[in-house]
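Q: Hi! Curious about what ERCC4 domain-containing protein looks like structurally. Here's the sequence.
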Amino acid sequence: SGASSPISLDSDDELDGFGYKEPSDNLILPCEEPMQEEERNDNTEEGNTKQERMRLIKEGKAKMVEEKKRQREENKLMKEAIKAQKAEQKKYAKEKDEWESGKHALRSIVAEIDSTIIETGSVGGTLLTRFAEKGLKYRVQVNPIRGSILWKMEVPQIGQ
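A: Let's find out. The predicted structure is below.
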């Protein structure tokens, strides 16, 4: 029972006179030609599956390359957006500093002159002439306090 014998597919094998079984046609032997043809078919199928696997691997690599390209493009756009945002913030900070330092003060000051000063006094014409010479803005209107000049500074809303 220690020696290996061919595998029989037929259960009707009979022992000969010496206790030896005659091999039948239904035996599977490793060296037979039909088996080699089947192996060749298996190999070609394996070759097809290997080719298929290689194709899938190449497709997977191509997808990964495309994904990396897309991520690089997204990162580039995000960095550009952040850079633009920082430049905008820097611009607003500079403008705010200019307003706080009084650099734009003359452009933003408006004198609201009560109409009674212009109508009744001899100062009205001279006052308007001086404002025009200095480049100051003024409005003639009725103020809550009669005969007064109200000074207002209009500061624009600078970025959030």
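A: A fun detail: The CA atoms of residues 1 and 92 lie 96 Å apart.
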